[in-house]
Specification:
This protein is of the alpha/beta class and 304 residues long. Helices cover 33% and strands 18% of the residues. It has one domain: Alpha-Beta Complex (Spore Coat Polysaccharide Biosynthesis Protein SpsA, Chain A). It starts with 11 loop residues before the first strand and ends with a helix. The model has no long low-confidence stretch (mean pLDDT 90).
Amino acid sequence: MQSTFLSKAPTVSKHRVTINDTDAVFSIIIPSWNNLAFLKTCIDSLRKNSRYSHQIIVHLNEGADGSLSWVKEQGLDFTYSVENIGICYAMNLARTLATSDLLVYFNDDMYACPDWDFWLYEEVKKQTSPYYFLSCTMIEPRASGNKCAIAPFDFGSNPENFNENALLENFASPTKADWNGATWPPSVLPTMLWDLVGGYSTDFSPGMYSDPDFSMKLWEFGVRDFKGVGKSRVYHFMSKSTGKLTFKKNGSHLFLRKWGISSNVFTKHYLRRGEVWNGPLVIPRDTFKFKFKLWLSKMKQKFI
């Protein structure tokens, strides 16, 4: 039997500073785990480079690096856990403070480029139903094989060596079409839709593969608009908090056991992640290659 991430019920709290913030377009949730330098850069960029007013909600895991006192000084809405409770519990707790009808998940190792929110909200306004999931486009310093990102486009790997001025001069230069397969933050969806599918699945705690699992929950509910917005851009430092974890679940195996197909089959054949956007997604074509991959997933499911 697989061990649990949390050995006892954690000490958590929530702190609302914003009162009656009816002007907020997005409620932006930022989970952070002792990552103060990145968190400062992230929130500074949201304040400087957003066209609209937003509610910013931070979840602090531990906050032992001074981030707890800093968030209090900034007058931000925040939730707090004395222990690290991971991404899934953090997102679900922070959502309880959200006041907007639109929920955004933003990582603390990201810098919001100018008008990131304008282009994202323009896409929101085009939607004809409340059943959609949209993502910004990441600019990354290193190529990782991610077809959704603009890379390599190096402006630094951390706040200390970040060349902000060069990024601001060049972030809009590379062309990038809208793309299929939104799964990663920054992402936006109606808060109602988040609640309908139950938020992030805590069986994936501390968080590996929780993003494709959430997209699968949306797919199962009937969502077919998974769109990445090419003009809405953030710089991603690619700092991995998961590297600090001493406990990790095998998220790929868990996804396979839960859904009966691999995450790779889902993102490649269902979400068609990284392909140029050409309208709402449909059930994958019943080709021999696709059927073979489904069969292979079923076989693997029996032996993990």
